[in-house]
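Q: Convert this sequence to structure tokens.
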Amino acid sequence: MKKLKVLFISSWYPSKEHPTLGNFVQKHAEAIHPFVELEVLYISSSSNESIEHCIINGVSTTIVYYNKVKTKLPLFSSLMKYKKAMEAFHKGIDYLAKQRHFSNFDLVHCNVSFPAGYFALDLKRRYKTPFVLTEHWTAFSKANNSYKGFSYLTKKAIQQTVKEASLLLPVSESLKTDMAELGLTQKTKIIPNVVDCDLFKPIEKTENKRIKILHVSTMDEKQKNASGLLNTIQKIAEYRNDFVLKIVSDDNYEQTKSLIKKLNLSDVVTLENTKTTLEIVKEFQSADFFVLFSNYETFSVVLAESWCCGIPAVYANCGGLTAIKNKKLGIQIKKRDQQALEQAIVNLLDNHKKYNSKSIREFAISHFSKQKIGEEILSSYNQVLLT
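A:
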């Protein structure tokens, strides 16, 4: 049976300008590429114009870099950005047709509605090519509330993209609900993010001298509630000295470092900056349990990664995977409840060894593996093309 030809586009994707931006979108591409004939096309503003093609983890990827718009006049700037982005996108389409012999594709898979939705709509109107839309954006989260502050034109573009998508694929039930409350409704199927279960896996480990709690995030105060987490750790440190909190953060490093110093937690909290994926895997594998105290999440890849590594977690119920209440996976608490966070952390300090690592991992594989998600995405393509 001939494979479907799919063009995969996104508002976020790793590039030389932003190496980690949208890496969870890239994992969706890696999940579906064994099932279809796939080409990824991404555009990014840059200081130099170029077209680069490479194979990344088996996925054929083309990135078009175009000159940044330098004017700061609001309306004119927006129009110029749109014009340059659309020109860059069509350069990419021409490149795929001439250099990759890839055209007349069956379907477009658009990821993150703005601004990539412009390109999906353009292709639908020019060639009648249907598109599905995967959405990850925390801007639609009720707790974030960023969407309401978007300009009229941005909102209209997002609304039109959702309306004309053949299928909306939010990464969680909570994101679907939040989008619906904003009037962003369409035929919907939930498809979670991917975790590389072959990479994120348990290993036999030596016992830590002190119990290792792990937290991986941007440490953004608004979303991740950094101060709430550290204030709770300070309180526990007043009566326990058998643990250490390891924080890995690729943002807000200096602010977090200052807060740790202010709370006199230097002997209890270890802070490290951006790490490679392999380094992050080792952090999970050596941890005794994971902690997440966010105010909102649309998915929470790090929580899925902890479960893939077979370690339990303490997590605030704030959307995405945190809505899962399963005592075999750890302890779910209410968001912003520092007293509950303290009790849950102390509970796992005493009982983390009682959790079944194999059972936790089996849950993760059945929900987030590349094979599982690839099959779910393919099913959504067939649903669109066969109806």
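The CA atoms of residues 258 and 264 lie 10 Å apart.
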